[in-house]
Amino acid sequence: MSRWPAFLLVSVLCTAPAFAHHGPGTFELGKSVTFTGKLTRIDFVNPHSWLYFEVTDANGRVTKYRCEMRSAHTLRRSGWTKELFPINSRVTIEAAPDRADSSSCYLNTIRFENGSHMDRYGQYVKAAGGGVQEVRGALPVAVKPRDARRSSGEPNISGDWAPEQVVMADPRGAGGGLVPLSQLETAKPGERRGGGGGARRGGGPAPGPRLYGGTELTTMGE
Fold it and tell me: Where in the chain is the domain with CATH 2.40.50.140?
């Protein structure tokens, strides 16, 4: 085999997992399954977090499941913490099934014994009585002010900084488009909005600054 075909083969093999990871993969997003069982573990990890639970049927047989969630970094920015998921508590999981693995799913909603629930794209704070309270909009975060540049004139990239988070208008993640947190209160579940690119579909530049993924492009970045 020549070196060029071998290079192409390696490239294809390396690219395939990336498509599987960034796309919906084998999850059937148009379907929904519901499980009720015992929460056994939660892993806040990147690139995707996971929660694990067990379901016991009428005959006493135990089946283990796991459900995929968003990245640990994104979940923490949305107010999610491990303390909100009591291990060994009874939960109800609503999720999209995995067509290739019957024991795996893609979380839409988790419901707790105390009556509270958390949706995949929801923003939450801890509520009285051990429950959670949804926040429709950006969470209040204490950010220390920082100068745009250091005394040397170099850009100051220290401290807390990040572009505005975008989430699905449907907090369950079952449809709709992504919207910035500042616009979440005005968005309807399932609504799709434009954004994220440098121009609108149909031709012509979008009004205002050129944006890519919510970040303004300067003339050097265009």
Answer: 33-134
